[in-house]
């Protein structure tokens, strides 16, 4: 955990922004895989972690804004639980570690919330993403389960987004910590991607490395020859010389801050000429985007810049016809770049998106687009100092998308579909880094992971 005063200051800032009422934060519980005692790896709710820091199931907390107090709710384990878990610090001891002086049994939470509600006080809570939290909130607040989401507090949600968006020096250090493990995972994958090796073997090596360092994965690894399938979690393919493999893999720090890194690996250590052309276009797009990032620049403009650089880089292929700016403005570029340039990252790999994706990524005069491609951009609003965002342009040749657009003659004046079909067996390329917005620019976090053609070929063929 961070120092106790950090959590105290975060709660004070939250209370000040919300202004009045009771702030209710629910921690996560253990979740069974197939029966009660066989559970998934526990992961605490990220906002609970941010304000109360405790990484154990069965907790809840209340901040009373008017009383300027915080109370932690939970139960001390008895002898039966000690048999299975070993001795744990008492609830009071845990609370002291995060600067909370008042604790109550979890059964007392209902009474505290009921008294506030009966007294006409506003009970603020965040939009739930787990079904058991919807049921719990419905019971606490005497609501229908179906009404719980709509009654979530907008003022609390927006305050949490504002606070969690800007990363402190301590948080950046945590992210650098986990990026050290991500660096090792990607270096291992580049050295291990050889003809005859199954994708699952490389995934196993990366997962084992993370676990050997006491880290969980930040998300299920995407490691696939079929890189044009953006979230492909199948790993049964046996690698062959000439394949390109998209490796999207990251770990969590001990305090659950995420890393999210993607590299594209040539199996057998060499890109062919066609692969080099596309790869360099993607890399140039990423480098141009990072160079353009600074406080005040709308990230949607950075996305469009990356798309223009990508289209220009693909000019020698003949895929797109006409000026790059026209191709991007029309949306034709989304044939090969159908997702957004990046997203917030922090305690969540897609940071705070459980709260409200549009509130996290839009506003300040920037509205989310509705057309294919741009609608998948999770972050469009102006960048701010202290944000950490991913920068992950890609180029993908998706046979079904090519054929659908060709049949519709969509953007026919800007796309040569005969050329597109020649790339139907190509797969995809993505390059991704985690980037801190500084006072006057941007900085890629973590130890540099090879990404130029020369660097990758030198490592992958060693």
Automatic annotation (TrEMBL):
Tell me the protein family, please. Belongs to the peptidase M24B family.
Q: Does the keyword Manganese apply?
A: yes
Which Gene3D superfamilies does the record match to this protein? Answer: Creatinase/methionine aminopeptidase superfamily, Creatinase/prolidase N-terminal domain
Q: What is this protein called?
A: Xaa-Pro aminopeptidase
Ranked from the top, the taxonomy reads: Bacteria, Pseudomonadati, Pseudomonadota, Betaproteobacteria, Neisseriales
Q: Which residues form a coiled coil?
A: none
Q: Which CDD domains match?
A: Prolidase
Report the InterPro entries cross-referenced here. Aminopep_P_N (IPR007865), Creatin/AminoP/Spt16_N (IPR029149), Creatinase/aminopeptidase-like (IPR036005), Pept_M24 (IPR000994), Peptidase_M24B_aminopep-P_CS (IPR001131), X-Pro_dipept-like (IPR052433)
Origin organism of this chain? Answer: Chitinimonas prasina
